[in-house]
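Let's inspect one such protein example.
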Amino acid sequence: MGPLPRGGRARFILGLLVITALSLMTLDGRGAGPVGMVRGAAMSVLSPFRSAAEWAFSPVSGVWNGVFGYDDLEAENAELRRELAELEGAELREASARAELESLLRDLEIDFGNDIERVTARVVAGPATAFEATVTIDKGSDHGIAEGMAVVTAAGLVGRVESVSANESIVVLLDDPRMHVSVRIVSNQALGMVEGRGADQLPELAVSGDVELAVGDILHTSGLARTLFPPGVPVGRVVSVPDETEPVDPDEGEGEVDEDDVTATTTGGVSVLEGLDAVTTIRVAVEPSARLDRLHFLTVLLWEPSS
């Protein structure tokens, strides 16, 4: 038999090596210890061929695993997204609870009316229409709240209770046109009346024309007999004063502060504006002490005027 061609010789040698390796593995499985060294040599010879086969078939294996493992990968990603959403939600809830607690602590730091029993409530709704300035709180008659009681924050007067049910109350805010509050000017103890003008406008202070006013004057509730509000509650500060060169219009002042009408319908007494001459009344803008546009927790003062 003639010599094998070059390609045939290579295949013959490869086949011989494979047969030899199989024989050695069989002998080694039967406990033939001396063949260990021969087996190692054969595996070294076959190693390049095995690596080449693995390299050739690895893309196919990857595609196979990718196709049949896609559902598992999607499920794992969905679970990771769910866990991330839970963590983000918990973080947001914690931040919200922290902000709410800080707001509650600020609103509870009331340094006036310390001898008056009080109830703290949460604001649960705003005004029912755009034509009124009211909020609804989650406490009512079951908690001792009654119509007409003063509602405050740590900054000062917010309004008064307008209507009450067992577990809710509607509060009329200071800037509502239905609000009229008897006040004292802290700097000179002169009396006046703060009146709401609507949610988009600052309340006004009505005082006698001979009262000296200055920008920044502080106003507190007067606490006069038969008024709805206890004494010493901050109401606001004067933010504008009339020009001394401007004449007072008697027609404008007359009728705007009607003592009998205002006191009878809003304060329950006729002594609030005693001595106030309607003809010389002047009006100035007042900035409320409390932020009426940022109300979260309110305190109702369980105080009723003496009869």
